[in-house]
Write a structure and sequence with these properties.
It contains 13 helices and 24 strands. With about 525 residues, the protein is of the alpha+beta class. It has a 9-stranded mixed sheet with strand order 1-6-5-4-7-3-2-8-9. A 5-stranded mixed sheet has the order 12-13-16-14-15.
Length: about 525
């Protein structure tokens, strides 16, 4: 049975919605807001159902070979009766309850028209025996200025409850791995509180979204106790006769991140500002992108009574100095976090066996040496330790930012060059007063290497430098030995080692050029 919905008086405005300032994730969030609010309003009724486990919102994007992609959003929330169904389609019909996530009553229609020029809405409410179906052809009604949208009524089971929105003739498409990944990541971020509770599930193209929690930096204090660097926030900002509360926390990340640090600002348990590369980082608090607070300080602040923009992607606080008041109120409470984040340094870790193995292997690939063999040596009661990961990160709070060299301190290296067999014993010794010491002990050449020598600061902050320098030391040792062997009276001309070293470095560079 076909009926009509009066959509007067501004039918032409539907076509203008495609020009609104949305992003794919903020537009999809409009649909999720409707689904989640329907669940919140009627969760007691839904949870009484035997087959209802939790709210499930399914977002499906189908890429078609002919380019006519389809976006579908389906939920198992309470559904809509006719009055709510008409309100979802008409422009000038805000919801009766404006304290929820769909307070403006504009989200579904504006976001649907932004995505595409043809969309169909189907819904039935729990306990109703009616299902409502309507399609909006944006291009047609913008040209004809029709006053009505036709809708059909079909029979439905009283235990059915769902809403399905299907959008075609897309103006905006969700394609490309980076865009798809960003949509999923930011949806998970926006609805982090819902996903944490476990009573709401959001699925994108068959994959359930989850929010990855951030590990907070912990420090072992001199008395043996552990401090978690986190500050609870409970403040009130007074503005133009309003009392605006802010609650949540600010903390320091265990692992710094330029893209992920910063504050997430939530309203009604839904992120307004936040997510990967979207977090709130005013310069007054975080400084510039190369500053440590910018990379380490993060937090979540709930601002339920603060006004937001129609697209719910920002707070309406740019007039009257409200944002400035917020920053001024917050900053003194987190000064200790800011100062601490400035002292934390990230130190790389490198395994000694991997460093030596890489250096010898690169010399072999360059054709400088052959028949190489590296063996770990336990010397002077040294306990062998291994690390599978090179260039992992360690947090330190002192001024030493140099690479942490893990693993065995001593290794034997056997190799051949120009028919001559060499035996090296390489030892990493941070306490040595010399950068490198090469000593002959019978047929063995002992190399003592101090990568932490003050001369090399700040180069020793980078594990790549450690690997290059180790290869350089092997080349220098070979240059010294060959210069001695080639001298008839064991006396080396000052230029011999330099010339031999230049030759070895040229040979080493050939590999990179090839």
């Amino acid at each position: 049975m076909t009926q009509k919905i009066n959509i007067r008086p501004t039918t032409g405005v539907y076509a203008t919605y495609k020009n609104l300032r949305y992003e794919p994730w903020t537009a999809i969030a409009e649909f999720v807001d409707n689904s989640t609010q329907s669940f919140f309003d009627y969760q007691d009724d839904l949870k009484k159902l035997q087959d209802f486990k939790k709210l499930v919102v399914e977002v499906t994007y189908e890429q078609k070979l002919d380019g006519n992609d389809v976006l579908t959003i389906k939920d198992n929330a309470f559904g809509m009766e006719l009055e709510d169904f008409e309100r979802a389609i008409k422009i000038d019909k805000p919801p009766v309850k404006t304290s929820g996530r769909n307070e403006f009553g504009m989200g579904l229609k504006t976001a649907a028209c932004w995505f595409g020029s043809y969309w169909t809405l189907v819904s039935t409410q729990l306990g109703s025996d009616m299902k409502y179906i309507a399609s909006v052809n944006v291009d047609r009604i913008s040209k004809t200025h029709e006053d009505y949208v036709d809708y059909d009524i079909e029979e439905a089971g009283i235990n059915e409850h769902f809403t399905i929105l299907t959008i075609t003739n897309l103006n905006k498409k969700i394609t490309g791995g980076k865009t798809i990944g960003k949509v999923k990541s930011l949806l998970a971020s926006i609805y982090r509180e819902d996903l944490r509770r476990g009573d709401i599930s959001i699925i994108y193209n068959g994959i359930e979204l989850f929010y990855e929690e951030v590990e907070i930096f912990k420090e072992v204090l001199p008395d043996g106790t552990t401090r978690e660097w986190k500050t609870d926030i409970d403040i009130v900002v007074e503005h133009e006769g309003q009392t605006l509360p802010v609650k949540g926390f600010v903390a320091i990340r265990q692992k710094g991140s330029v893209s992920d640090a910063g504050l997430a600002l939530l309203r009604r348990n839904r992120v307004i500002i936040g997510g990967v590369e979207q977090n709130y980082r005013p310069k007054e608090i975080f400084g510039n992108s190369n500053d440590f607070p910018y990379q380490r300080v993060f937090g979540e602040l709930h601002m339920d009574d603060w006004k937001v923009t129609q697209a719910k992607d920002n707070f309406d606080w740019h007039n009257g100095g409200l944002e400035e008041k917020f920053i001024e109120k917050l900053l003194p409470l987190i000064q200790d976090l800011i100062k601490k984040s400035e002292k934390i340094r990230v130190r790389q870790k490198a395994n000694s066996s991997d460093i030596i193995g890489q250096a010898v292997n690169e010399l072999k690939q360059a054709g400088i040496v052959e028949n190489t063999q590296v063996t770990i040596v336990e010397e002077d009661n040294e306990v062998e330790s291994k690390s599978e990961t090179v260039n992992t990160l360690i947090v330190d709070t002192d001024d030493d930012t140099s690479v942490v060299i893990e693993g065995p301190k001593t290794s034997d290296v056997r190799l051949d060059r120009n028919g001559i067999h060499y035996n090296f014993r390489v030892n990493f010794d941070e306490n040595s007063t010399q950068w490198v010491l090469i000593k002959k002990e019978g047929d063995l050449f002992r190399i003592t290497l101090n990568m932490k020598h003050p001369f090399f600061r700040p180069l020793i902050d980078d594990s790549k430098f450690i690997a290059v320098m180790t290869k350089f030391v092997f080349s220098m040792a070979i240059a010294e030995i060959e210069s001695t062997v080639m001298s008839p009276d064991n006396r080396i001309d000052p230029s011999d080692i330099r010339m031999k070293m230049n030759s070895l470095l040229e040979e080493s560079l050939k590999l990179k050029e090839e």
